[in-house]
Every structure is written in structure tokens, then in C-alpha cells.
User: Fold this.
Amino acid sequence: LAKTTQPISMDSYEGQEVNITCSHNNIATNDYITWYQQFPSQGPRFIIQGYKTKVTNEVASLFIPADRKSSTLSLPRVSLSDTAVYYCLVGPNTGGFKTIFGAGTRLFVKA
Amino acid sequence: DTAVSQTPKYLVTQMGNDKSIKCEQNLGHDTMYWYKQDSKKFLKIMFSYNNKELIINETVPNRFSPKSPDKAHLNLHINSLELGDSAVYFCASSRTSGGPTGELFFGEGSRLTVL
Assistant:
């Protein structure tokens, strides 16, 4: 499975747009890119998934360049409640595959 | 209704004891997982079951034994607990086909402390 690399931590202020980039140089043709969010004392929660170009939902946007070797999770106008760890995962879009979570990016949003 | 529920949420026990953590999902998913999150917050898969059959078994000591009585339940039994077993254990489930496959739904975790 493709290994991912993300920044260990990021700081932001309320109201700002936050972009977290994930590198996955060895992504395979049938791999999807998925992002999860984890709050303290909770299990990770699915945010967004994409294969190529751009995906947007009510929570975030995911930008994937043509070579798919990286992806950027964009959180518009963050609030204090967006303080969490964000995980980037790469793998086939079929349940049951070996989902590997890296260390994630710890986002701290300040007032 | 809680989609993926685990019990107990907290578990404190002595070294050498045997303990179990239960997990149930009401999402109709056919794949369930156990993950371990250590103190450094790395989340590592331990086991995966699809329709009650073991499909992933990572390098986990034999003291850990998952049991799936039906596809809605995946329990984790741990024998002879060691200090290094202290962690948060997460249960998760997913669909294997149809819809947004691959999305994992996690429980709230069970924090195990071995003294």
C-alpha cells in the first residue's frame, strides 16, 4: 500500500482556510485518497474521499493533481472545533483492505 | 442510535489478567476491524473480519483473539495482559461493496490500562 507523508502539526487561527498536504508518491492506479478526522477520545471520522481532480462536500475540499502523487485537504474558515488530528490514507476503495493510518497532522486552531 | 458501539469504554486491570472488549455495529456492514492506538497516537490495524471470516491478521501476539459470532459483532479477547497492551482499542466497520465503499465507521474506543 502507498505510504503517506504529512506534516506532523499545523497551527491556524479561527476563520482562516487551512490546507493540509499529503504526499503519496507510490500511489497505485486503483488507489483512492481518503481523509479522516479524529478528535481527542473519539474514533476517526471520515471526511472526504477522492480519486482525481477536485472533490467538495459540506465539510472540506480535496484537491488532487493530475499525477496523483499528492493531495491537499482544504478546510474553509476553520473554527476552534476543527482542532483535531487529520489522517491521509491511500488504498483501494473496497472495504476490507488493510487501512493504514500514518501519524496524521495535528491541527491546532487558535482564537 | 450508535452505529458502532464498544464496551467497556474504560478498562483498568492487572498484568496477567484476561479481558474482553465487545463491539457491535448496526449499519449492516459485512466487514469489521480492530485497531490499536498507542500513546504516540499511531493507529494500527490488528484484525479484520468479513462475514465472520478472518481476512487480516497483522503481527499481533497470540494472546489477542478476535471472535465474530455474527457479522454485526466482533469481540476482542486478550489473555495474560501485559503493560504494553495499554492503549485505546477501536472497533470499526465498513461495507465491501456498493455505495461509498471503504469508508470506515469507528466506535468511540476502549481505553485499556494495564497496571
In short: The radius of gyration of chain B is 14 Å. The CA atoms of residues 36 and 44 of chain B lie 5 Å apart. Chain B has a mean pLDDT of 88.
